[in-house]
Design brief:
Strand content: 15-25%
Order of helices and strands: HEEEEEH
Largest sheet: 3 strands, antiparallel
Shape: globular
Number of helices: 2
Number of domains: 1
Structural class: alpha+beta
């Protein structure tokens, strides 16, 4: 089953409490409470959660993917800039022997 971004293992949207807890886990960027840095070093903005129109938009990522047995436990969730989250999915697909999906393009 292909889940939508920002959904738990059952495909439901994460609660506001989970979104806030994942945000708090991300590395801070100086004194700015609304800015963080994702696991790949990209700047993300708190109010841009789920916003794929923003360079600073971010999503909740399952570190160990649900399809590989990953859970919705907070220890398995991280904030990733949305493009990084999509790239991670493609990289994992290739690593499993699926080949590159040429239909996806991430232009800057």
């Amino acid at each position: 089953m292909q889940r939508e971004p920002n959904t738990d293992a059952q495909g439901n949207a994460f609660s506001a409490d989970v979104v806030e807890a994942v945000w708090q886990k991300a590395r801070t960027l100086g004194i700015y409470e609304t800015l963080r840095v994702d696991a790949w070093g990209w700047t993300i903005v708190q109010q841009d959660f789920g916003n794929t129109q923003s360079r600073y938009g971010w999503e909740i990522d399952h570190i160990i993917p649900v399809e590989d047995g990953g859970s919705d436990d907070l220890s398995n969730l991280q904030a990733l800039q949305w493009e990084n989250n999509r790239r991670k999915e493609e990289i994992q697909h290739i690593a499993k022997g699926g080949g590159a999906d040429r239909s996806k393009s991430f232009k800057r």
